[in-house]
Amino acid sequence: MRRPSRPWTTVPVSDVARDVLNGADARIAPADCTTMAEVRQGVDALDRALVLLLAERQGYMDAAARIKTDRNVVRDVARIEDVVAKVKAAAREAGLSEAIAEPVWRTLIDRCIAYEFGVWDRTRS
Fold first, then answer.
1. What is the pLDDT of residue 1?
2. What's the whole-model pTM score?
3. Contact status, residue 28 vs residue 41, Cβ threshold 8 Å
4. For the chain, domain boundaries
């Protein structure tokens, strides 16, 4: 069994994602919303930011598929559990319900693995 990796390493976020996260896509703080239109505007802005971050994450799946020389190591159960543990810890710290975070990340990981298998197969066929 692999030892857990460090909690989080810092990697620069892409310029586009950073602009969205830093308010280039203006939104009102949840506590300041007084209308459903403001709530929806905030949710839509965050969804756009999440899409950018997920696209960047997908780029790392492309890199993993390129780097891994054995298809059998694409799915790494120890790594999955390590990621989920770190996500749950980060969720607790951020005030995000683990009941939301864990299933979202497990689905994300599952879909990323499927994507990585596809890339791995295409690049070696």
1. 47
2. 0.82
3. yes
4. 12-57, 68-125
